[in-house]
Specification:
With 229 residues, the protein is mainly beta. Helix content is 8%, strand content 65%.
Length: 229
């Protein structure tokens, strides 16, 4: 499925670039994300409901459709999930007056596709709306399991098989574009995304989805000609 999506995406971008003959740019970006899980069902799964920090890095191709509109697509590696507080025990299993944390890490490979709208001349305001197709590479729970001799013992459990491999999200974003020399621009973006699919079909009564916010910065290089404005 990921190969098919990548092929369709590549063919789509190539076709647009040939038909329009417009300016094409390539970029790299990276930054941080804050994400959590939301449950739209009536089940009792309540882990991952607090925001946790992750990462978002990737590459992109942007094809101008005119002076103010463009198509942008890319390939990202990103971590989503959530965290929660848990009760800790000692070596004998007795509850202690100390709280630990459980972190839910979802590592995705994603293919975002979006429309980009720009406003302004030199420093431009950017607006994005689009969707992304995601493949779950790995899912783990990392949690404080016990306290022994004053030291927290962390446990790592991989649970990739409990979750759907494929997900899709919709997002909107805002950013700024700063011109530099030699066809380069610095791009700063913020984005809010919500999952469109349930991330697991194995949890009765639960409808778990991702909710995330990301901030990235990167460099964009324009081919063929210098961007106007």
């Amino acid at each position: 499925m990921m190969k098919n999506m990548f092929f369709i995406l590549s063919l789509f971008l190539f076709s647009i670039s040939i038909i329009n003959g417009q300016n094409v740019s390539f970029g790299v970006q990276g930054g941080v994300s804050h994400s959590k899980l939301i449950n739209k069902g009536n089940g009792f799964f309540d882990l991952g409901t607090e925001y946790k920090t992750g990462f978002n890095v990737g590459i992109n191709t942007t094809i101008d459709l005119g002076n103010w509109a463009a198509v942008r697509a890319g390939f990202n590696v990103q971590r989503e999930g959530g965290k929660d507080g848990i009760t800790l025990t000692d070596v004998n299993g007795n509850t202690i007056d100390e709280r630990g944390h459980i972190y839910l890490h979802f590592d995705y490979l994603s293919l975002p596709l979006m429309m980009q709208f720009s406003f302004g001349k030199n420093i431009k305001l950017l607006a994005h709306i689009g969707t992304e197709f995601k493949y779950l590479a790995k899912q783990v729970f990392v949690f404080d399991s016990q306290v022994i001799n004053g030291r927290r013992i962390k446990t790592v459990e991989e649970n990739t098989s409990l979750f759907n491999r494929y997900d899709q999200s919709g997002f909107v974003g805002l950013g700024l574009s700063f011109p530099m020399k030699n066809n380069l621009k610095i791009i700063v973006l913020t984005r809010s995304a919500i999952g469109l699919n349930e991330i697991s079909n194995a949890m009765n009564g639960n409808k778990l989805k991702h909710l995330s916010f990301a901030a990235t910065a990167g460099v964009q290089y324009y081919l063929h000609k210098k961007e106007k404005g």
